[in-house]
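Exercise 7b. Backbone tokens:
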């Protein structure tokens, strides 16, 4: 099948296509009705490309009728958008290089993680016949999303509390650690170690002092990644420290922190319990 020479995308709208947008791709169903789906996409300066699994209806639709339209709003300002109408070219993605490039761009991971065994990937390349990139009234005044903005700010505040809490741990500041907990706040650690279990606020005071005193040079916990949603913050962290016994302590953590009114109501600390048991509890 031959394809038309693709129409150029105006440079004024390249930013829409390169800032991890969500496009809506439209294909024709067998009954003549249109089907639209949200998709991630990649743009190389000339072509828009989309990854799909061969069992998806849009892939089947395009095999039968290659006409395609995709509308892409700016991810932070839906008043700005671009619409591309054209012909879809379908090619295989046998080594999954393309879908993995999408995963890298959108999720920061090297391998797309959500396919099932046996899924076959294909690439939809859009050969543009018509491009609509209109000047829209109020394109420089994006609609406000008060609820979303409030939630974003709340998440930022909760991340700040998490950073301050870890900083208090690192400097051995037991009072700040304890005062960051709500009156009914709890701390939980897994396993069957002497330090495993659930601790209330007052138990945390003695628990934290005992552990932090065992690391005169500080626990030196470093936050690697942090994600916040509603009242929860997920933290990936690593510590490098020297125990009073002279043993090196290097542990990996995944912590779930839940907050209410700026105070920790639950701290769930997952870690390498064998490392903790050997160094902190002296059972190695």
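Sequence design result:
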């Amino acid at each position: 099948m031959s394809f038309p020479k693709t129409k150029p995308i105006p440079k004024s709208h390249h930013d829409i296509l390169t800032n991890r947008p969500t496009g809506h791709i439209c294909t024709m169903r067998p009954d003549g009705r249109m089907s639209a789906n949200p998709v991630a996409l990649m743009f190389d300066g000339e072509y828009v490309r989309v990854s799909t699994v061969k069992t998806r209806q849009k892939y089947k639709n395009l095999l039968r009728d290659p006409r395609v339209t995709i509308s892409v709003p700016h991810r932070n300002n839906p008043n700005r958008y671009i619409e591309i109408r054209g012909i879809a070219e379908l090619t295989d993605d046998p080594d999954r290089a393309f879908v993995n490039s999408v995963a890298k761009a959108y999720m920061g991971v090297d391998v797309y993680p959500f396919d099932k065994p046996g899924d076959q990937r294909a690439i939809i390349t859009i050969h543009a016949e018509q491009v609509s990139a209109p000047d829209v009234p109020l394109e420089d005044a994006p609609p406000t999303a008060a609820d979303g903005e409030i939630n974003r700010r709340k998440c930022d505040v909760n991340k700040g509390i998490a950073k301050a809490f870890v900083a208090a741990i690192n400097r051995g500041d037991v009072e700040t650690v304890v005062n960051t907990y709500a009156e009914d706040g709890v701390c939980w650690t897994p396993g069957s170690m002497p330090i495993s279990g659930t601790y209330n606020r007052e138990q945390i005071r003695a628990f934290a002092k005992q552990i932090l005193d065992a690391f005169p040079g500080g626990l030196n916990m470093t936050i690697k990644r942090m994600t916040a949603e509603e009242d929860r913050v997920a933290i990936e962290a690593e510590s490098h420290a020297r125990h009073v016994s002279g043993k090196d302590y290097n542990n990996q953590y995944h912590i779930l922190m839940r907050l209410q009114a700026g105070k920790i109501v639950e701290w769930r600390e997952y870690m390498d319990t064998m490392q903790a048991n050997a160094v902190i509890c002296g059972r190695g």
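Instructor comment: The domain at 11-132 is CATH 2.30.110.10 (Pnp Oxidase; Chain A). The CA atoms of residues 224 and 237 lie 5 Å apart.
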